[in-house]
Amino acid sequence: MQSTRSRRKVAPGAADTGDSGEKQEQLLLSSAICNTEDLGPFVRKAFASGRPETLLHHLRQFSRSKESEIEEVCKAHYQDFILAVDDLRSLLSDVDSLKSSLYDSNSRLQSVAGPLLSSLDSFVEAQNVSNNVDSALRSLSLCIKLMELCARANHHISNGSFYMALKCLDSIENEFQDKTPSSTLKRMLESKIPEIRSHIERKISKEFGDWLVEIRVVSRNLGQLAIGQASAARQREEDLRIKQRQAEEQSRLSLRDCVYALEEEDDEGELGGDENDGYNYGNNGLLGFDLTPLYRAYHIHQTLGLEDRFKQYYFENRKLQLTSDFQVSSMTPFLESHQTFFAQIAGFFVVEDRILRTGGGLISKMEVENLWETAVSKMCAVLEDQFSRMQTANHLLLIKDYVSLLGVTLRRYGYAVGALLDVLSKHRDKYHELLLSDCRKQIAEALAADKFDQMLMKKEYEYSMNVLSFQIQTSDIIPAFPYVAPFSSTVPDCCRIVRSFIEDSVSFMSHGGHLDFYDVVKKYLDRLLSEVLDEALLKLISSSVHGVSQAMQVAANMAVLERACDFFFRHAAQLSGIPLRMAERGRRQFPLNKARDAAEEMLSGMLKTKVDGFMTLIENVNWMTDEPSQGGNEYVNEVLIYLETLVSTAQQILPPQVLKRVLQDVLSHISEKIVDTLLGDLVKRFNVNAIIGIDVDIRLLESFADNLAPLFSEGDANQLKNALAESRQLINLLLSSHPENFLNPVIRERNYNALDYRKVVTISEKLRDPSDRLFGTFGSRGAKQNPKKKSLDALIKRLRDVS
């Protein structure tokens, strides 16, 4: 750039311009050479401009300039150089002498050091040999230790001690593999160690697979054992409750000769329920299930670094096993296979509970809960399906009992069983409907087999089985045998059916999560008695009872069943675990009242029919007799003979209250017949003597009622006499000296409350005075009218006016 600017400043002129340019290039070249710069740009420029000779010329000029400078420098230092050469020459002799001296010294040194060097070579060689031997010994020792580890690993593998074998392999890898001097041995270790690990993994996986197969059989047996223990515990509780009920019954009966004793119970430990049970790798020889193979496989996989994979593998396999356990065989009835089905599931979760508590994290609580939720939903579905198909109450009860035992068993391990119990409660109504249907058939069969004969018991055990067991005895004194009971065989048969119903109902309701279920049992017991037994008895009464003796036997049976119903409700209360006073407080009316009323009505109807046959003799009464009958009319004597015979027979089987009600109905019917006879067209007229005869008849009937006082209470005897109230009050009114007192409300309410004034009018009009007989008016013409007749006519007139 400087050359360019300088050229631009030079005045124009051809010769001056050329010379100045060459001088400039020469200066630049000299400066570059002096500064040891690269001359390449100058060479390229010379060849590019086609003037290499100019560059060569400049180089030669620079060389000549430097030679002159050298020459000037040499001239300037020539004297010093000459002096230096002289000094060097003077030193040459000293150097020669030093050289000869050094040579002599070297010769002496060589002669002296030669043996030492040979010894040194021998020492170095020996030292190398020693180092090699030491190295060989170290390598050999390392190889020996390695071989010992390999032999130990092989020994552990052959003995099945896979964990120790893996520990040996880890030691080989960490301590010897990289230090092994033999490349061949090192390659062998690199190839064999993974193979050995794979071999151990396969072996332990096979053992785990065998354990999975074995644990399914073990789980079924384990579940059956666990449920069996729950059943035994429940039975002990039932036995204890029975003893308590017996003690309560003895207390209720005021028996003071009670014997009390302390009883020791053998408390069986929970099935695997104790954490501190001497557990050793999951082994429990008493219960027959061993978790050692599982924990061994888990430990080995932990050692191999495959812990998560094994956990997943274990969970998936157990889930598949549980799913297969849910399969219900269609070839086998569920009633036969339900115990195996539920025991398998119970055993599965007993094992899982043990693994959760002792497995060291092999399975988590959440995973177990997920499995349990799956199992509960499946079991609920199976129960819903099977219960919907069942048509036998006993089958449903058997399955319910086993499921409740399953719930008790698994609740001890912390599993939630509420959903299972809800399914059982959901089918409570269906079970009781099936149970009612079964009882309906059994009761129908029992009633159909009844011969309406009093039951004969020859032995005391028969009395205990048919009377005492249902508390239908009328006395605590054991009768003499043979004993003829007042009831027929249908009574204890029906009692057994009802008692079985109560026990089955309580069995279904108990152990189902509900503590207070007496109201439910009582509701269905009421239905059994009022809908099933009562209707069956009504059907029996309406279709199969023929004759007074059969009707009397049915009425006697109803009285006994009334006492039995009290026992039924007490028995239900005892089995339900509530105090008897609560059961008695909530007791309702007699549930068989329809059948009882029908039986008594039928007996009364048959007796009325028989009495009506005797009452037809009332047609033979002379209603206009001159002399009153002193010993009673024929009809009443026949009725009394029949009634006395009836009472002598009936009092042997009928309770006093039933007999009283029947006789009261019959006497009331006789009273009505007497009044109806006086009211009817058969009697056109009658006189006082006929009424006096009827009064005698009624007195005989009242005397009959009084004679029954030893059988009844005083009040009951009075009620029997009151059954004749209508006829008695009518006769008293007709025989009264002041019949107009009937119009007095106070007297009428006290003495004539059973009379209908319309009947009084009709019957009173038929009463004739003795002077009203044929031709009687001629002799009594102008005579004074009878005041009683006058009063009666006034009464009739007043009553007609009221009407």
TrEMBL record:
Write down any Gene Ontology CC term.
Answer: membrane
Q: Which InterPro entries match?
A: EXOC6/Sec15, EXOC6/Sec15_C, EXOC6/Sec15_C_dom1, EXOC6_Sec15_N, EXOC6PINT-1/Sec15/Tip20_C_dom2
This molecule's function is given as: Component of the exocyst complex involved in the docking of exocytic vesicles with fusion sites on the plasma membrane during regulated or polarized secretion. Involved in polarized cell growth and organ morphogenesis. During cytokinesis, involved in cell plate initiation, cell plate maturation and formation of new primary cell wall.
What organism is recorded for this protein? Hibiscus trionum
Where is this chain compositionally biased, Basic residues type?
1-10
Task: Give the location in the cell.
Answer: Cytoplasm, Cytosol
Taking every annotated instance into account, which residue ranges of this chain make up the domain Exocyst complex subunit EXOC6/Sec15 C-terminal?
420-766
Where does the Exocyst complex component EXOC6/Sec15 N-terminal domain start and stop, copy by copy? Answer: 58-227
Does the keyword section mention Oxidoreductase?
no
Q: What ranges does the record give for the region Disordered, renumbered to this chain?
A: 1-23
Q: Where is the signal peptide?
A: none
Provide the primary localization.
Answer: cytoplasm
- Record keywords: Cytoplasm, Exocytosis, Transport
Per the record, the GO terms for biological process are: acceptance of pollen; Golgi to plasma membrane transport; intracellular protein transport; pollen germination; pollen tube growth; vesicle tethering involved in exocytosis
Record protein name field: Exocyst complex component
Similarity field: Belongs to the SEC15 family.
